[in-house]
Design brief:
The chain starts with a strand and ends in a 15-residue tail after the last helix. The protein is α/β, with parallel strands linked by helices. The longest helix is centred in the N-terminal third of the chain and has 21 residues. It contains 10 helices and 14 strands. The protein has a domain of 205 residues: NAD(P)-binding Rossmann-like Domain (Rossmann fold, 3-Layer(aba) Sandwich), CATH 3.40.50. The strands form 4 sheets. Strands 1, 2, 3, 4, 5, 6, 7 and 12 form an 8-stranded parallel β-sheet that branches. A two-stranded parallel sheet has the order 8-11. Strand 6, helix 4 and strand 7 form a beta-alpha-beta unit. It is globular, with a radius of gyration of 19 Å. The site of uridine-5'-diphosphate-glucuronic acid has 20 residues, from helix 5 and strand 9.
Length: 334
């Protein structure tokens, strides 16, 4: 059904892909982003250029952590999707203050905006990072939230969840909080493993693995994430939901799949494990299955194949992008 939606973080990976879905379905999309330089601004600008091809998309370049900036937003929306954030785990130890600003202050501001304007629904993106290492026990919503999150990123995201719930406690707004598990796919993030690995193998550069490559993730394909966000937008289902793949894979398996798809062998350099990196995060998906009727449909091999195809198509853009950020130099490099 056609809706009027506000999407924060629309120049980002997930925001961009979700906006495209909504626009194709006939919704009016108001996108907000401050196009920060957490990673390539060029990539974010390219996403916005694509969105602007749709007549029912409007864009505001605005920093949500500055409360007065929200006065320039329209006031009536069917639903607000708050995806804007600083999302890199490893970078969060380097610049904690930016994470506090963009993940907690901005979330408080958007929650107040929703409250003041009596908007019926708020969807806030959260992260599997709040759980820390799961070991072989699947992580469940509403039970396993840690009181000692493993990164500044995780700490600010769980704070954002709690601030939003507290601000809207007495309101009738429906709050849904999807917690995504390591998302990848076309238009992905160059600070994350899969896009980098494809780029490095494709261009013959050395793949940098932090640790021995045996750490596991429930790598989740972007289309499955967009479907989950669509269900939360269309239905009135409050609560927190794990949105992740039902398969765990190691980084070494990811690299094998990319090598096969590109018919090219990776040059690999194993570096120190990233600071406080988790070995394994395994989602319990029962709640998403039972309450949202959502299940992940895309296998890692299919998702990587699609992503590699997209990288080939966008090779000129991807060659212009930086893949490492300041401070991302492991101590065993010379
Ligand atoms: P992204 O970095 O690509 O997108 C976030 C966008 O928010 C960026 O374009 C950035 O410029 C914008 N932004 C940041 N601070 C802002 C501010 N103060 N005002 C306005 N805009 C601001 O990240 P993503 O991968 O698309 O992640 C989207 C959401 O999903 C985030 O909340 C993230 O924490 C969450 N998440 C992502 C993943 C993943 O694997 N990609 C997994 C779990 C959770
Ligand atoms: C990712 C996203 O960056 C977060 O925004 C998100 O919240 C989180 O997933 C989540 O699942 O909730 P992360 O798991 O660190 O965080 O994802 P990647 O950047 O893809 O890293 C995965 C693994 O690859 C980590 O062990 C990391 O150390 C490793 N890695 C990453 C490398 O070995 N080399 C690299 O160049 C990059």
């Amino acid at each position: 059904m056609s809706k009027k939606v506000l999407v924060t973080g629309c120049a980002g990976f997930i925001g961009y892909n979700f906006c495209l879905k909504m626009l194709k379905e006939g919704s009016s999309v108001y996108g907000v982003d401050n196009i920060n330089d957490a990673y390539s601004v060029l990539l974010k600008q390219s996403r916005i250029l694509n969105l602007k091809k749709h007549a029912s998309f409007s864009f505001l370049n605005l920093d949500l952590s500055v409360v007065d900036n929200l006065d320039s937003l329209e006031k009536s929306f069917d639903v607000v999707l708050h995806l804007a954030a600083r999302a890199g785990v490893r970078q969060s130890f380097i610049n904690p203050e930016i994470y506090v600003r963009d993940n907690t202050l901005a979330t408080a501001n958007i929650s107040n905006f929703v409250n003041k304007n009596s908007i019926k629904k708020l969807i806030i993106a959260s992260t599997s990072s709040v759980y820390g290492d799961s070991g072989m026990k699947k992580v469940c919503e509403d039970k396993d939230e840690l009181t000692s999150p493993p990164s500044v990123y995780a700490a600010t995201k769980i704070a954002g969840e709690n601030i939003a719930k507290t601000i809207l406690d007495d309101s009738t707004t429906i709050i849904s909080i999807p917690r995504f598990f390591t998302v990848y796919g076309p238009w992905g993030r160059p600070d994350m493993s899969i896009l980098r690995f494809i780029h490095w193998i494709q261009s013959g550069e050395t793949v940098r693995i932090y640790g021995n490559g045996e750490q596991k993730r429930a790598f989740t394909y972007i289309d499955d994430v967009v479907t989950a966000l669509g269900k939360l937008t269309d239905q009135n289902i409050p609560g927190t939901f794990n949105i992740g793949s039902d398969n765990l894979n190691t980084l070494n398996e990811v690299i094998n799949l990319i090598e096969k798809k590109l018919s090219k062998k990776a040059k690999i350099k194993y570096l120190d494990k990233a600071y406080r990196d988790v070995d394994l995060i395994m989602p319990d998906l029962d709640k998403a299955k039972n309450q949202l009727s959502w299940v992940p449909l895309t296998s890692l091999s299919e998702g990587i194949s699609n992503t590699v195809e997209w990288c080939k198509e966008k090779i000129d853009l991807l060659n212009e992008i930086d893949y490492l950020y300041d401070g991302e130099k492991s101590s065993n490099e010379n």
